[in-house]
Amino acid sequence: MSRAYFCALFSVAIFLATPTLAQEVGADPPAVPGKGSTADHTKFEILKQDFASGPEVTRACLKCHTEASDQVMHTLHWNWDYTHPATGQSLGKKNVINAFCGNTASNETRCTSCHTGYGWTDTRVSAPADPTRVDCLVCHADTALYSKLDNQAGNPPLSPVPEGAKTITGALATPVDLSKAAMSVGVPQRENCGQCHFNGGGGDNVKHGDLSSALIAATRDVDVHMASDGLNFTCETCHLSSEHKVAGSRYAVNAHDLGGTGLPGMRRDVASCESCHSDSPHGASLIGMKLNDHTDRVACQTCHIPEFARGGVATKTVWDWSTAGKLKDGKPYHEAAFTQSDGKALHTYLSTKGNFEWGENVVPHYAWFDGQVEYTLSDEVIDPEQVVEVNRLSGSPDDGTSRIWPFKRMVGRQAYDTENLTLVYNQVYGPETDTAFWTNFDWSKSIEAGMRYAGKPYSGSYGFVDTYMYWPITHMVAPGEDALKCDACHARDGRLTALAGVYMPGAKLTLGGKLGMALFALVALGVAVHGGLRLVTGRGGDHD
């Protein structure tokens, strides 16, 4: 049997042996009216008033939902602060440096436009302790009736709206009727989560690669779970919440869930594939059993998300800040040389941000991963002669816990202190300051202001260093028939060729492999010669 024929047969068998999720969990549930809420908020008299601000709405919400604000204020969504239990690092959005707009400190009114609260203008101190400053509407209101401005520290657009003002989704802002928004509330929908999570980094799908507006009305080929004509999951179907704490974290990833049950209604306290599908998700056949043998070494996402940035929305793959600041006739300019498949032209250069590259249907970067991530924080010395990993992935093929995971590897070039050898904070936003880069295009002023604001030492000398930043790919799960087949990885020049600890049939052998094959050949030759001599000498019968 030829290798190509075997792989084709094996692929068909995989497809036939792999059950669909619908087969595993039973028939579709009955339709739920409205948005799944147990109360019709249009009937609440307390919401039928003219609200002057978001906090006034929250005060009304707390009359019934008495503990909601307190719960929210004990979550990562509120604090943006997380101490990693394994590394001890202070992480969270307010602490880390990233490969996109750099940092939150000194850029708050822009960055905290996606905070689940109102008016957090200084992340050097904790988020406001006032319970009415929690924004109930951003997660629970109909997004057609409510959004946040992109530069007002989490506040919504209220009349009169400044000309040209935009929301956090990039849409032109229109005045919000807070009473109508309050009466529209229900369980969170994809659009609620997507306002921030789809638009992180400055635009649709810029940051994650597997989170975009394509998921709002997804087709089955884009995401089998969120397909509008299929399972129609919301984000909370997997990212369950308890006391407003949402399962799933990119700071401490559950990379290998040993507690998965695969039984509907059972353990669902983490956002992992195993928590629904178990660690033996494939059918009871020879092929299914062989595929199940992979689950202790290969993450489900590796085979079932063959590419990300699907569905017509590209993701940013390269961001070079070192070219930012160029002007034409003394004025900032832009270039838009990439057109994504839905026809939208995307910026490839902005005076404010530098050069970009984009991609659709991107093949992931693969790495052994045990769930631990260590960040390069502003006090860590770097080697500018090497690519600096903004977040380093922990894992090894030999540790017994890591699996092969897919990632978006964001390629960056960003500023660093050439004497202290540290990544730097910079102030980019601040239309009323003379230090914000987006206003005056002066790196010296921008970095000095950002470092001073954050209380970090700065030598006054800066340069630019190449960086990588890794984002786990776990959304945009393809249909089973589109999952990777055996020869996508187990072949010469396959996807995992460069990854240690993976056997590749047909690939070039290492020196040890060649010696092993030579030894095997010698043994086989010795056995053959011995057998031949016994036949020639007539001593091939029974041994005495």
From TrEMBL:
Keywords, in A-Z order: Membrane, Signal, Transmembrane, Transmembrane helix
Regions that span the bilayer: 515-536
Keyword Membrane: yes
Cleaved signal peptide residues: 1-22
InterPro entries: Multihaem_cyt_sf (IPR036280), Multiheme_Cytochr_ET (IPR051829), Octahem_Cyt_c (IPR024673)
Keyword Membrane part of the UniProt annotation: yes
Record-level Gene Ontology MF annotations: oxidoreductase activity
SUPFAM superfamilies named among the record's database cross-references: Multiheme cytochromes
Pfam family, one: Cytochrome_cB
NCBIfam families reported for this sequence: octaheme_Shew (TIGR04315)
Protein name, UniProt field: Octaheme c-type cytochrome (Tetrathionate reductase family)
Species this protein is from: Albidovulum denitrificans
Lineage: Bacteria, Pseudomonadati, Pseudomonadota, Alphaproteobacteria, Rhodobacterales
